[in-house]
Amino acid sequence: MIRTQIYLTDKQRTELAIIAKNLGKNQSEIIREAVDRLIDQAGQNQKEMALQKAAGIWKNRKDLPDFRSMRSEWDR
User: Fold this and answer.
1) Residue 40: which residues within 8 A CB-CB, separation 6 or more?
2) Average pLDDT, stretch 27-46?
3) Does this model's pTM top 0.85?
4) pLDDT of 4
5) DSSP codes of every residue in the chain
6) How far apart are the C-alpha atoms of 18 and 55, rounded to whole Å?
């Protein structure tokens, strides 16, 4: 692990200490878990944004075959 220093407000520090005590974990563990959740959430948001950007990108293309007629040939 890499040691990292952060600045917390008094309220954040107090609340973090309470949460850590209630969960029986140290504050570093709580912070790492919170960072992991943020990273997971950001990754999911990036995937969703990429899908939204890609949606419909071929809708106005004229150089593609007619997929509906191709598909109807397969459905017998």
Assistant:
1) none
2) 92
3) no
4) 92
5) ---------HHHHHHHHHHHHHHT--HHHHHHHHHHHHHHHHHHHHHHHHHHHHTTTTTT-SSS--HHHHHHHH--
6) 45
